Amino acid sequence: MPPISDTRNTPPWTGMDIRNLLSKSALAVGAGNPIETRLQRKQSSVVKKPISLGGGVPDTATLPVNDLLDSLTKVLRNSPTETLAYGGVLGFEGMRTVLAERYSNIDNLDLNPSNFVVNNGSAGSIDNICDAFIEPGDVILVESPTFSGSIRTMRGHLAELFPIPLGNPDAIADTVKNIKAKGKHVKMLYTIADFHNPTGSTMSQKDRESLIEICSSHQILIIEDGAYSDIFFGEKPPPSLYRLANGEGILKVGTFSKTIATGLRIGWVQARSDFIDVLSSMKFDMGSSPLLLRAISDYVGSGQMDQHLSDMRPLYEEKCDALCKSLEKHCANELIFTRPSGGFFLWAKCLHADANLLSKIAEEEGLNFPAGSNFFLDGKTADTKHIRLAFSTANLNAMREVGPKMRKSIERALNTTS
After folding, report:
1. Under 8 Å CB-to-CB from 227, ≥6 apart: which residues?
2. Once rounded to an integer, what is the mean pLDDT over residues 44-71?
């Protein structure tokens, strides 16, 4: 038996630089670097109970705990064996049937379970799409600004991201032509057409139709992120891109994270059946939890979700109104914004203060929110004037307190830079 070699002179693992071991995908999203990738920093110790305007998540008071508990109990009692077994990569057929029925009505199309695949939230759905369709170096057009989490997912697939302006089809068409003139292949476009994150804006039907025409003529697939489409105040948003395109060339992503609860982690892709076949073939996780899918399909299919949404919408509209009025009263000379007609977010422009500095100072005054630079491809170098305020989590009284705290924060920020 050969002697065991002496490893005392070899470099110890503790001295290894992890960045030398990482994949290109990990490096593309900044892994291994001492950079904070989350929008919400640690809460300031100066204020014990700050007002959270950071995350766009449902108000905890709206969580339908008892209804979900009833559905969970029902499916466990009625079909325990199937409920506690593997469910397959497509997801429980009953869940996909419920989705098909719901979106056949919403999109006015004849959909069936073969038009849906269930994933781990909308984030998992976008990751699944990138796994199936994106090669390293493919170009993805993303709105500027846009949701930072989707940016990270696409960068993790080594796509080359190009910013496009919101609500400007002519500029998008020019961007596509310029990219193609350089010999690059534009594979996909990512958009949040309804109650955009972070701007809260909604794309007009005319712009939707123009966008479809541009992408169809260049064979560019569209990821339509519909995370907030059900959270409208008053009028519904225009028809989805999926509906306007008759389901062609659109991968529509949905989730229950904003309408029911983030912890469910159930989302889906709605697309042509041949697209769904490809997406399911690129899943290697044995599928989502049959327990959750069966319970949620019972909850949604019974009509309880629609009632839940009817109860939620007025609450979020009232919160949005309270926030807007507080800012208009106390910060009219320093912030400008357009009231959103749905969703969770208010996008405000700072007329004089630096938004990145304001975000830090406001934390000391008891307000937590991200600077707009978090939502641009180039980060702080791209934007120093916007802030995103999420009105979904804090209560009404807190919304009324935002204006005075924001005004004080702005005054401090201006004094710091003067």
Report:
1. 122, 192, 197, 253, 254, 255, 257, 258
2. 88
Do the domains spanning 42-57+311-417 and 65-302 agree at the CATH topology level? Answer: no
**How do residues 288-312 score in pLDDT, each as one tens digit?**
999 999 999 999 999 999 999 999 9
Backbone angles phi, psi at 103, to 5 degrees: -85, -15
Burial (CB < 10 A; 0-12, 13-18, 19+), residue 48, is: exposed
Contact 300, 105 (CB under 8 A): no
Buried b (16+ CB within 10 A) or exposed e, 224-251: bbbbbbbbbbeeebbbbbbbbbebebbb
Distance, in Å, from the CA atom of 291 to the CA atom of 373, rounded to the nearest integer, reads 39
Determine the number of helices (DSSP H) and then strands (DSSP E) in the chain.
14, 12
CATH architecture for the domain at 65-302: 3-Layer(aba) Sandwich (3.40)
Q: Please state which CATH number belongs to domain 42-57+311-417.
A: 3.90.1150.10
Q: Look at residue 196 and tell me whether its pLDDT is greater than 50.
A: yes
User: pLDDT tens digits, residue range 224-254?
Assistant: 999 999 999 999 999 999 999 999 999 999 9
List the Cα angle 182/185/189 in 5-degree steps. Answer: 115
Q: CB of 141 within 8 A of CB of 172?
A: yes
For 138-194, write each residue's pLDDT tens digit. 999 999 999 999 999 999 999 999 999 998 999 999 999 999 999 998 999 999 999
Alpha carbon dihedral 270, 275, 278, 283, in 10-degree steps, equals -10
